[in-house]
Structures are given as C-alpha cells and as structure tokens.
Amino acid sequence: MTGEAVARGLFRRALRTVGAALALQWRGAPVLSAFSLTLTVCTGSVAATGGWLTKHLLDELAKGAAADSGRALALGVGAAAIAGTAMAVLNVTEYLVSAIRWRVTLAVERSLFGKVIELEGLKYFEDPAFHGRLKLAHEASQEAPYQLTELVQTLLRSTVMVGTLSAVVLTVAPAMALLLLLAGGVGLTAQLVRSRWGAELSRTLVQTYRWRGFYSSLLVDVRAAKEIRLFGAGELLLDRMLAALLKASSQELNVARRGAVLQVGLSLLTAAVTVVGTFIVVRGAVAGRLAIGDVALFLSSVAGIQAAFNGVVMQLEGAGRSVLAFGSYLELLALPGREGAPLQPVPALRKGVELRDAWFRYDANGPWVLKGVNLFIPAGGSVGLVGVNGAGKSSLVKLLCRFYDLEKGQLLWDGVDVRELDPRALRLRLAVTFQDFMAYDFTAAENIGLGDVARFQDAARVRAVAKLAEMDDTLCALPSGYGTLLSRTLTDEEGGGTGGVSLSGGQWQRVALARSLMREDVDLLILDEPSSGLDAGAEYRIHQTLQRHGAGRARLLISHRLSTLRSAGLIAVLSDGQVVEQGTHDELMAAGGEYARLFCLQASGYQDERVAARATEDAA
Ligand SMILES: Nc1ncnc2c1ncn2[C@@H]1O[C@H](COP(=O)(O)OP(=O)(O)OP(=O)(O)O)[C@@H](O)[C@H]1O
C-alpha cells in the first residue's frame, strides 16, 4: 500500500471515529447537544457582527462635528451589547458542555465495562495487548468523546467565524483574505501532522505507561508493603518506575520538540502575513483609499481569524490521541460478547462430568498442561485430585468452569460437550473455592453474599454459610458485625463507618469457603485447596461439614494434605498432565504407586513414638 493510501485509510478511520463520538454524544444528550450546537453557531458569528458595528461607529466618529450622534450611540451600544451577550452565551455553552460531558462519560463507562463483564473466559484478561487497549479505551471514557465533540464544535464555530470575518476582510483588502486563509490552512495541516505524531506515541508508549502504573500501585499496595519493606525492595521498584517514566518522558519530549519547531515556524509565518497585511492597509488609509474604520475592522478581523485558527489548532493538538483512545473503545465494543446463537440451557447433572482424552495448553505455542486426561466425576460422588505443584490441577478446575476450552478431546456434562452449553448457565450449577480466592474490600456480609448474587442481601443465608465455614462467631465479634467493612485502605463512600478491619489468612479462606457455599442449587462442588490456611482442628471439622453439605452433589476436592482426601470415592493422581493412577485410598495404597509414595512421605513426617502412645491412650 502506498503512503498516500495509508494516510487516506487513517483519515477515513479517524473520520469514522469522530462520527461515532458525535453520535454517542447525540444519543446521550440530544436536547443539550442541539442547544449547545445552536449557541456555538451564534458565538461564531459574533466577532464579525461586533467588528462590523465597531467599523461603522469609528467611521461615524471620524466625521467629527458632522457625526450623527444618535447613530453613533446606537452602533456603540449595539457593539457593546453583542460583546456582553456573547460572553453570557459562552458561559451557558461551557455549562452545557460539562453537562454533556458527564452524560457521555456515563454512557462510555457503562458500555465499556458492560462489555468487559460480558467477555467469556479468561483469555482476554491474560493478554497484555488487551490491557493496553483497555487502558486507552478507559482514557476514552474520561476525555476522548468530550475532546472530539469539543473539536467538532470548535471547528464549527471557527468555520463560521473565519467565513464571516474573511468576508469582512474581503471588503477591505481582498488579497489579504486569501493570504490569511492560506496561512491558516498551512497551520492546520501542520497541526494534523503533530496530532498524528501524538497518536503514534500514545500507541507506542501504552505498555510503558502500564508498567509505570504497575510499579506505582505496587509501591502503595497494602499486600505488597510487607515484602517490599522486608526485602528493602522499595528503591528498586522506585527506580524501575522512574525508568519507565524517563523512557516515556524522553519520547514525549522528542515529539514535543518537533512540534515546537513546527509551531514556531507557523507563528513566524502568521506574523509575517499580519505584518504584510497591516502594512498594506495602513498605507491605504494614509493614501486616503481606506477609512479609519476599515483599518480597525481589518485589524480586529485578522486577530479574530487568527484566534479562530488557534482555537482549532489547540483542539487538534490532543485530537490524535483522542481518536486513538476512542478507536480503542470502539474496537473493544466490537469484541464478541454474549450475542450469537442461543446456547442450550444446562440441565441438572444426572450422570456426571467427564474429561475424555482432554488436551489443553494456555498458548497455541506453549507447553501442554493436560495431555489426554480421562476423568469421570459421578453425580453425587466425590473425587480427590492429587499431584505435585504444576501438575495441572487448578488448570483442570478452570476448564470445568469453562474459563478456557480444550484444544483436543472433550469435556462432557451428562454426555453433552460443554461447548454446546451456555457458560453462564453452566457456572450457575457450580460452587467453587479457588486456590487463589479473592479478599474483597467489602463488608463481611457482602464478601460472603457475593457467592449468590440473587441472594446478596439475604442475611439469614449469609449467616448460615458462615456457620458452615465456622466464621459466624468471628464475624459477629467485629465492630459492626457482618456490616463491618473488611478493608485496610477504604472507608465507606461517605467517609464514615468502621474501616481498617482485616482478617487473618485462614479467616479469609473461610470467608471464601462460605462464599462458595452460598448457592444452594448446585450440582458440582469444587474445592481447590480449601483448607490450606486452616489450623488442624478447623480443617478436620470443616471437612466433616463439607462432606455433609456436599452429600448428593458431585464433588472435586484438591488438596496437598492427602489425609483430607482419604474418604473420597475416587482419588486420581495427576502427573505431567496425565492421570497416572486412580482408585480408592485403599486400592492406591495397595498398588504402591505414586499416591502411596506421597502418602507415606507425608505420614512419615508425623512419625513419633509419642503419637502412637497418645493414640493408644485415646483409644483406651
Ligand atoms: N494462566 C496461565 N497461563 C499460562 N500458563 C499457566 C497459567 N496458569 C498455570 N499455568 C501453567 O500451567 C501449569 C499447571 O499449573 P496449575 O496451576 O494447573 O498447577 P497445579 O497442579 O494446580 O499446581 P499447584 O499444586 O502448585 O497449585 C504450570 O506449568 C503453570 O505454569
């Protein structure tokens, strides 16, 4: 493609983007936009009208004693009234613009984050390019639509202004009108080039700015604060943050320098045109060809035309970045969401969930994580999953939640491939405690209620599951009970309430467990290391409770403490992406394979003659 074709393509895309921004504004605030547009056109013609009245006033005054005082007064009052009213109209326009701006911001945020929550699976969230686009698109919600509509309004106002003022100059010095328009045209073209530089720079630096943001948020992150202080890593992180900033600033300054050179050239060109014009007009006045009012009219018109061009130039400065940001926003909205052919609803599980010759990897070129896994989790039955770190256990959980799809093989829900099922409906049939569970800066009740959005406010249900997770007493004892905000960094939005309360690691884990128990009508309960942070007594009791609570549901339990899996109906050992053994605890111990080896290894850690003596005493 030739450079010209590329430029044409870019220009067309920019026009489409600006059009979409205007359409968004129009849809968000049609009445305000129409009003603001009308006022914009009016203010655009004020300068020429005021200039015209002033010219006639000066010409009248220049007549001296022969002047018509009534006419002069009317012209003077008229010019002053127009200037005063124009100011008031500008103030109204400013208010309208900010009202429109808020409506547009709301509309953009609603659609942008509405799309984000619609995105199925996790692949977008693990893609740096997606985050880069999201960052730019989020900027769009702050400034871009507003800047683009502001640009169009300024363009409109300036076109009216330049048009009317040029007509005025045409009557005084026709050649000058042409020269002024030419200089303005050159200025605008140059500014478009600058604007494109800015857009290209934004695209290039998006990841650098993301790194800078990452380091700066890490430096104030309450969870990171412990390790950063312990390791004395603050300086290192600060250096990295500043290095990112330095890289960005040197490139920003480079573009700013080139822009400044261009701008200085343009200013000199404009000054030269003005000097030439003034020379011609003043000479005309001295020679008696032009009246004093003509000189005043010319000078004010030239200033007006230049101000109009400057207004557009200033708007164009950030336009490239705004077009890019708004373009990213439009691209994100175009990502596939929940639309498309309706998927089958998910029936209650009757037989079981099956992985059949399941092959999976996170990246098309990455290593296989699952290599032909076969596993059946029967409805109402329990399966324990065992394996060393990195064996693929949590990946299997994420597949069951349909955060990813298999590359080869099948995941079957009662014999139906899950790809044929609605993922959201499927997830409603699951209760899952993730290994890397979340600790939300919400109240205790909200932290738990979130597990079943339909019963978010159901205090009785929240309390019931907190009891199952043995957290009721602890939460009741908090300063505001279940209403206590569990955050060390936030207070409620009014700035009151009790903040600064947090839980211990094991308590947070119990809250996460309670959250996953909120949904009652589920078929598959998945617990990925649900008790790793619990003390031994609590672990034992909670497992008994979960056995009772999970009865009648399919259960997949993952734990490195093999003793907690002993009672599972089936235990599968995952190794190097494959199920290498499966059976009951007794069968696997008898087989003397990997499970038996791991179990004996753990049990040997507890070998102590006092343990045996205590057990005998307890038995007696
Ligand atoms: N989001 C991801 N993107 C790319 N690779 C990943 C991702 N998550 C996990 N992996 C890789 O997949 C492999 C299996 O990880 P997984 O978390 O499933 O193991 P695990 O058996 O649950 O381990 P652990 O016992 O430590 O929790 C690992 O090699 C890991 O590096």
TrEMBL record:
Its main location: membrane. Residues 34-321 form the ABC transmembrane type-1 domain. Keywords: ATP-binding, Membrane, Nucleotide-binding, Transmembrane, Transmembrane helix. GO terms for cellular component: plasma membrane. It is found in: Cell membrane. It is a multi-pass membrane protein. It comes from the Bacteria. The chain crosses the membrane at residues 31-53, 73-93, 165-193, 260-282. One of its GO terms (molecular function) is ABC-type oligopeptide transporter activity. InterPro entries: AAA+_ATPase, ABC1_TM_dom, ABC1_TM_sf, ABC_transporter-like_ATP-bd, ABC_transporter-like_CS, P-loop_NTPase, Type_1_exporter. Residues 353-601 form the ABC transporter domain. This is ABC transporter ATP-binding protein.
